[in-house]
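quick one before i forget lol
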Amino acid sequence: MSIQLNGRIFIGFEIKISTGLHIGGSSGGIEIGGMDNPILRDPMTNVPFIPGSSLKGKVRSLLEKQLGLTPNRRIGQCKIHVCETQEAYSKCPVCQIFGVPAKIDFNLPTRLVVRDTLLSKQSSEELEALPLDRPYTEVKTEVAIDRITSAANPRPVERVPAGAVFGPGEMVYTIYSCDDDQCDVKVDVQNLATLFEGMALLEHDYLGGMGSRGSGKVVFTNISIELRGRDDYFAEPTSIGKFETVSDILAGKEDILDHISEALNV
C-alpha cells in the first residue's frame, strides 16, 4: 500500500485561561516546605506551557465519551479506545484523527499533530509584574476535611492565574489518500468537523487537573485555518478563514469543509 499526502490544515489559536490552570509537573528535587503540586514549566525559561500531549489527549478522551466508544487498550495508567479491526477503524473518526498503536496491522499515519503551546509574551510580561506566590503562578490552598475527626488537611496547588493567555498554538491536520482505498481524502476532510467538535467539548469541560474543583476552564480564541495542498505545498498557504471562537467555526463548518474540498479538487 502506498500513502500519499494530499494536504495539511494548519489550525492556529490562542488559549485563554478562564479559571486557574494546573497541568502537573514533577515535584522531585523540591526542597522541604516547597510546592507539593507544582505545574509543568519549560526547563529552559521556567515559564509555564501547555504540552501538546495534554491538549491532544484530553480532546481525544472527550470525543471517545461523546461518541460512546469503549476504552479497551491500556496506555500507561489510562485506558483509551482503539479499534480492533480494519472495518471498525474505517468508520471511526477518533482512531483516524488521533492514531492507533503502530503494531496494529491496519495502522495508518496519525492525522493530527498538536504542538506545545507556550505562555504568550504579553501574559508572561503581565504575570512577571504581579506580586504572585511563585514566578508566573498563584498558589491555591485546598482543604480536605477528615470525615471522622473533622481535622483539616490543607493542600497547596500551583496554578497559572485566570486571564492568562497561551499562544500562538498550532494543530496540524494531514489529509491522506491510499492506493487501496484504506484511507480517503473525502473522509479525512469530513473528519475535520469532529476535531472542531472536540475543541468545543474541551471548552465545556476542563484542561489539566483539579477540574472538578474549579480549575482548568479554557477558551480557544483568535483561530485561523490555513491549507497547504499537495500541488503547491511550498507556496503561500491558502487562508480558509479566521474565527474569534469555536462556536463561529461550528456555525460555518460546512462552508469550511467545502472550501477545503474545492481547494484540493475532491
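fyi Residues 9 and 227 are 5 Å apart (CA to CA).
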